[in-house]
Batch of 2 targets.
Target 1
Amino acid sequence: MNATGSAAAAAPAAAAQPAAYTADEMMTACAARALPDGTVCFVGIGLPSAAANLARATHAPNLVLIYESGTIGAKPDRLPLSIGDGILAETSDAVVSVPEIFNYWLQPGRIGIGFLGAAQIDKFGNINTTVIGETYDRPKVRLPGAGGAPEIAASCREVIVVMWQTRRSFVQRVDFVTSVGYGNGPGQRERLGLTGAGPRKVITHLGVLEPDPATCELTLTGVYPGVSVADVSAQTGWDLAVSGSLEVIEPPSPPELTALRRLQAISAGSEGAS
Amino acid sequence: MAEIVSLADAVARTIHDGDAVAMEGFTHLIPFAAGREVIRQRRRDLTLIRMTPDVIYDQMIGAGCASKLIFSWGGNPGVGSLHRFRDAVENAWPGPLQLEEHSHAGMANRYVAGASGVPFAVLRGYSGTGLEGLPGLDGNPAIRPITCPFTGERLTAVAALRPDVAVIHAQRADRAGNVQFWGVTGVQKEAVMGAQRSVVTVEEIVDVLGPQPGAVVLPSWIVDYVAEVPGGAHPSYALGYSARDNHFYVAWDEISRDRERFLRWLDTDVFGVSPGLAGAGTGEGGCGA
């Protein structure tokens, strides 16, 4: 899986309430809240890992973290630098091989929530982490590629996508389908034989999009404090549908911010230690 | 029985121009010293195979060792892009790099098939993705649908990986060449068992391999060469021996971004260093081990 590639820039929310919290902190808290205690969760490095560990430190102490390196039930007290970080192997319930994690654990649908980032997403939640440009052979930008994402998107019981929202990343049509969301619309996942339910939430630096139950189209269901529907529409490359019951999402609470900043401070302090 | 030799000898005896080489280690125990030795011996036209090319293949691609790459995730883990890999794909520098691209699940299953001695593996995967239509290195589809002969279900087949050479790094070996590694063990066992020839670099050679929770043991007779290379996974992790040198991974972003700077790094930190020396590769980054 990939890091979401977001920088610690000021979002409209942060601009409205200067210095209270960053857009990344808002996104991370929002993603953490989407993880019910006890859920089994497939996480990648970057914002997903921060969110999952924030959830463990706050409302979900029994969250089961699985990293694609084969560590099951990892309980790191700092954020791992990569999926091979020793702290994951040392704190997990079991360490299994890479073939085993994909074949025995992910493929049969044993994992509740998969976290994905992306460079591009379309209105049916299909994501691209492969190439930007017209053709695969001569890409404008070569991205890292698939990693575990295609099968995470296919086989986790549900998927949460976390990414920065811009007109360049939220596009009418992704340049390459690395991982399938709802394909070309209702019924497509079933036709393809994908066993999981697909993306249930897309958490961005502006708010939250969820698939419409009838059309599968990503619909704005929540915004962060200080963010307007127009702000989100302006950063969406398709005609964005808005839920009739649009929610204003709570800002990060003091305990959430304290726990998250503590995790990040411990992690920064241990970087490069050998 | 594995023969215990120097790293330079192990590489010289096993890896030849044009070979398909899998140097595995899933962000942990990456055989970096062996990668630099391949660069020093100026191997060319290699087909490099690795789930996560990581900085090790970024170095080898930039140095001109590879003409083909089979992989599933080509980023600098936790940092960003692999600039030498991108420069090769986007601008054919220092030469064109032909890709065969998979998902992690696909690659893992291909290694399992190789180790198992069967021609392909079956998985639920790739369905509906753009990867399904991509050609393999031979121009034919590398990912194909298959119907289950028992249920009629449509699944996906991927071809076995049978590298000419597998290279891995392990925590230790004994004097008979039995190899032991633990922590995140990735696909190293499958890579070695699917390959024609194998090289294992180790942190240390010991008299007796004591028990370790979750350890993988490769008996001496399944391995061709063992070389003692302390720090041979630097800057990646070697659980129980060293942590990741994250400063190097971050510094690599700068070193590799610019061709001239990368070439200076090659001169000072690869060609300017004796084979088998641990911890090479940090001078240019200004953050010595």
Note: The helical segments of chain B are 7-14, 32-40, 54-62, 83-91, 104-116, 188-194, 246-257, 259-271.
Target 2
Amino acid sequence: MEPHYPLFYVFHFYLFGVIALASAITFVTRKSPVTAALWLVNTMFSLAALYVMLDAQFVGVMQVLVYAGAIMVVFLFVVMLLNLGHPSELADARGGGWKLAATLIGFGLLSEIIVITKTKLPAQLVVARDFNEQQLQKLNAVGMIAEPLFRDYLLAFELTSVLLLVAITGAVVLGRGRAAGAR
Amino acid sequence: MSVFHGIPALLQAADPNMPIVSGGWFFFFTIVKMIVIFTIYMIGVAMLTLAERKISAWIQDRHGPNRVGKGWLQPAADGLKNFMKEETMPEGVNKPLFVLAPILSFIPALTAWCVIPFGAPWPTRWGRIDLVVADLPVGFLFILAITSLGVYGIVLAGWSSNNKYALLGGLRSSAQMVSYEISLGMSTIPVLLLAGNVSLNSIINQQAWGGWNVVNLTVAFFIFMVSAFAETNRLPFDLPEAESELIAGYHTEYSAMKFSLFFIAEYAGMVTQSALMATLFFGGWDVPFTARDNIGPFSKWLSLLSIGIFLAKILFFLFLFMWIRWTLPRFRYDQLMSLGWKFMLPLALTYIVLIAAVMLGLSAAGIEQGILYAAILGSVNLGMLIVLFAILDRGRIISPAYGRMHPKEVERLRQLDRQLEIKRRPIGAEGGEIMAIKVKVVERPVDDVSYIRATLKGMALTVKHLFDVQGRVTTQYPEEKSPISPRWRGTHRMLTTETGKARCVACGLCPTVCPANCIKLVPGEDEEGNRYPLVFEIDEFRCIFCGFCQEVCPEEAIHVGRHYENSEYSREGFVYDLQRLMDQTHPVCEMWDPEDPKGE
């Protein structure tokens, strides 16, 4: 039973899908780091639009807020550290072996996607068409995420927090070590 | 928690007899709303530039723009001028990004407006129109996400300009905006906690019920306001364009309409942040003392009133932006960063914990949102404000250059002074071992150390000047001229004899004495053997108006004069030949008064 989506929806799905893919390809192929980072922002935007179309507004907004913010930091690195006037030396994908490996992984992922779309989903993953809308009515945009996150997956959430804490501590240690060395 | 979810839900269950307009009408009215908002917004932003110039002028006891349509058409004239100007494209810029940057800085501020509710629902024959372009369920987060993109425009402008000042401005602004975005976001979490939702309409409705958040969450408002100033790059946080250090910062290389877009973006950002302050902390469009604007039955007059109330709040905050800009000096960069990271962020985090605890306590005590709830929250805030401004703001919050020293440092200096006292002798005297200056530790009064107090004092002073209508002085230049000294040395003039010839005898003294080498003289001789200048040219661009030529002239021929209004279309126009020098009629400079040779 194929569900029928309105033309409006389908049009925008393909529009943002094409933009996301094209931006992603441009992101990989650009040599200039600033341009590449900008294309990455564009990809993230299109993904955010796709999330919103799935009634996941909170995820969409967070996509923009977090990723745009994170890419901003990448930007800073690019502008401050990498802008040495030799973008060609920064080009990635060195050697044929790496390129071959990347291609293989890409094909692997693609085949995985095809397999997943062809197989029937397990029953507990299937929800009603208006499930998201009902949830939105019952809770609110944030509650939809917060409810399962802090109830069903609390342990995983807390473990992730610990992981982030470790990362922050590591950054502090690195920063302090360099400062002490300079002195 | 049911209490917090219940009240907004109750308020959101608006008049069931009046459903939202649907179908084609929905699209129609949405487009109408977009056009109306865009038009009013753009005109408003243009008028803001005038308001800024007027307010700055009044604070500085001037009149401000009063020419084009008595000043009212000045924004139109500025806009026209910016369209006519040359679009410069400096060498070495990254062209696509250079063009993209102003657009990227302008669009986010504008887009944020599509989720800000600006009035009570408007009843029509086809149903109810919510006066907001798009009532997103994630409304407030959308604004945070979109406004955080404004920094891209500034960074890209700085980077693509291929100019060190622009790059520094861009880097500064990205660091500043990323830092303050965090405290901005954190300061609003208590607001979201109270409302139990992130949609702006429910935040407004909650305030209609539970009192304005500026009372409930005063400290959050304070943090939000400071961060909003930093986010919009307004003084005292305008480091990205600090003209005394970076020329104009990130938009140094921009001209004409591209520059204008940055300017518009700044004001658009101000309007957006003002609207946010009004919405989050001052009840938004809510009409006080009635619930009809929230739950119906709706009326058009009430809607208009609510729009008026909202606009008045926005205008107040815009005025505050300008008032503070013309009162406070710019922060130093390290002060900015330490204020953001070491004070604002910890304060915001502490505040979240505190408010959450108080809310939990009140919920456990069974107190519902209302007057008592607001009073308790308000008193908690009052206590925190007293702690902040009476104890923490003693040279500790930010460390201005004159900040109070640590007591230990003071004691160390005193100790040093006492030691030196023993050894100190008059220089040259016997036994003088050391030459030292007495260390003097000045106890500064609280007024000098407290930033908040000093700010309020400054604001009181500026607002006094703002309303001082009698004291405004501006010389209306072309019609009314400032008096100039009789010794003013301006445009040259060659005096003539009664027969109409130049008095100059081409002796060659003036080109010799001229320190700028701006006089060109070719002497000639007539049949009677009298010398006269064949060519006598003065390049007024090179001239430094020292007046040596006049002093050295034996014939009192060449003079510097009391005239300064020169304008030409080309550089060549400023090379004055003999005839032109003779044609000048302005009064010449009186080098000195014989009775008062020193000019006293």
Note: The CA atoms of residues 69 and 128 of chain A lie 34 Å apart.
